[in-house]
Amino acid sequence: METFTLIFTALGSVLLLLFLVMKARLHAFVALMIVSFGAGIFSGMPVDKIADTMQKGMGGTLGFLAVVVALGAMFGKILHETGALDQIAVKLLDKFGHSRANYALGIAGLICTLPLFFDVAIVLLIGVVFAVARRTGGNVVKLAIPLFAGVAASAAFLIPGPTAMLLASQMNADFGWMILLGLAAAIPGMILAGPVFGNFISKHVHLPLPDDVSEPTLGQSQMPSFGFSLSLILFPLLLVGLKTIVARFIDTSGTLHQWLQLIGHPFSAILLACLLAIYGLAIPRGMSKEKIMEVCSAALQPAGIILLVTGAGGVFKQVLVDSGVGPALGNALIGAGLPIALACFVLAAAVRVIQGSATVACLTTVGLVLPVIEFAGFSGAQLAALSICIAGGSIVLSHVNDSGFWLYGKFTGANEVQTLKTWTVMETILGSTGAIVGMIAFSVL
């Protein structure tokens, strides 16, 4: 099919999706499924393959996310009910003060996400936002935006984050420069998109605490210490970090490496953390087994909605991937004669808007720009700068086909319009800031 037709179909699908969700007020799950069918038909896919592609997209998205969200929701709920998150919130407020709690959350998101996937970090840390908001009586927006900005900045720009590692390896970039430029992009990006923007937008968008966030079940005398509470949060991060970092320096054929791969997988890490929270925290402090079962069941109810909508977003993304929209769009932009650093950003942003997945945007962009740059003689530092430009473009303009859009909205209670005003703008500020750093670095290195 012609490039123009593919691009027109993709853009029309996005506009229709926004209309169905925001104006027609159709449930996002139903809207995503309808638009996925339409995109498959009008892009010229064989009609007998559309349903298989949709099934592939749902399974590919939920195969990882379902386990992470379910276990993470239970883990976070137990930490809340036992007061562990409250203890962390109290310490943050003592150290930073109420007026700078948003900076504390941004820094926490930036650091704690280093060994994690975006979705895992959000599930593990979102409870701290609610604990701080409940103690300060503040707007959830002012606190959630910095946390999400820190998590997104770390996931996009910092090694050993999966996106940065993927880009550095695919682009043959210098890893040392990738670390330095990633820090140069992530830190100012997090500050501008997180505490600065969060403080501004919280004056225009107000989100109260979710209804299911209440006082911890256990009394103050039964709550764990700050050190133990923090160690519980860091425990799954440590396990994943062992897999991500330590496993790179040992024999890959050895038994130790195999065990690190197992216990450092997010599935294993969060499951072990959940068991530790139950048997090392809740039960020793007097929470009955019946109460633990009730807490875990309550945590899974909102998780189901998040998973369904996120899975439908994966369906839409897969239809657009298999229809050939990415290569068609990439060839059109590369052929437009843009400067290479700007082209990397614009191409990644365009694929991101159409397909939703930051990872797909990165991989698509790398595949399209490598033939252009492989004979240009760029240094490892310049390739690292181009990688930062691609990473920045891959996270801008997030909307209803992105799982992060729904994770933010469902966890904070924001509707679609509020999510666009807060999450989408935050992601765009963050990605644009990082890309500008990458473009400057490319021009001077």
- Roughly what fraction of the amino acids lie in strands? under 5%
> How would you spell out the order of helices and strands?
HHHHHHHHHHHHHHHHHHH
Low-confidence stretches: none
Q: Percentage of helical residues?
A: over 70%
DSSP helix count? 19
- The radius of gyration is 22 Å
Morphology: globular
End-to-end CA span = 41 Å
* Annotation, overall tally of beta strands: 0
Helix/sheet category: mainly alpha
Report on the biggest sheet.
none
Mean pLDDT: 80
Our count of domains comes out at 1
Question: What does this 3D model show about the protein?
Answer:
The protein has 445 residues and is mainly alpha-helical. The protein has one domain (3-444). 77% of the residues lie in helices and 0% in strands. It has helices at residues 3-22, 28-42, 47-81, 84-96, 101-112, 118-136, 140-157, 162-170, 175-201, 226-244, 255-263, 266-282, 289-322, 325-334, 340-355, 358-373, 380-393, 403-412, 416-444. Helix 8 (162-170) crosses helix 17 (380-393), helix 14 (325-334) crosses helix 16 (358-373) and helix 15 packs antiparallel against helix 16. The chain is globular, with a radius of gyration of 22 Å. The mean pLDDT is 80.
SSE topology:
Layout: H1 3-22, H2 28-42, H3 47-81, H4 84-96, H5 101-112, H6 118-136, H7 140-157, H8 162-170, H9 175-201, H10 226-244, H11 255-263, H12 266-282, H13 289-322, H14 325-334, H15 340-355, H16 358-373, H17 380-393, H18 403-412, H19 416-444
Helix pairs in contact: 1-2, 1-14, 2-3, 2-13, 3-6, 3-12, 3-13, 4-6, 4-10, 5-6, 5-7, 5-9, 6-7, 7-9, 7-19, 8-16, 8-17, 9-17, 9-19, 10-11, 10-12, 13-18, 14-15, 14-16, 15-16, 15-17, 17-19, 18-19
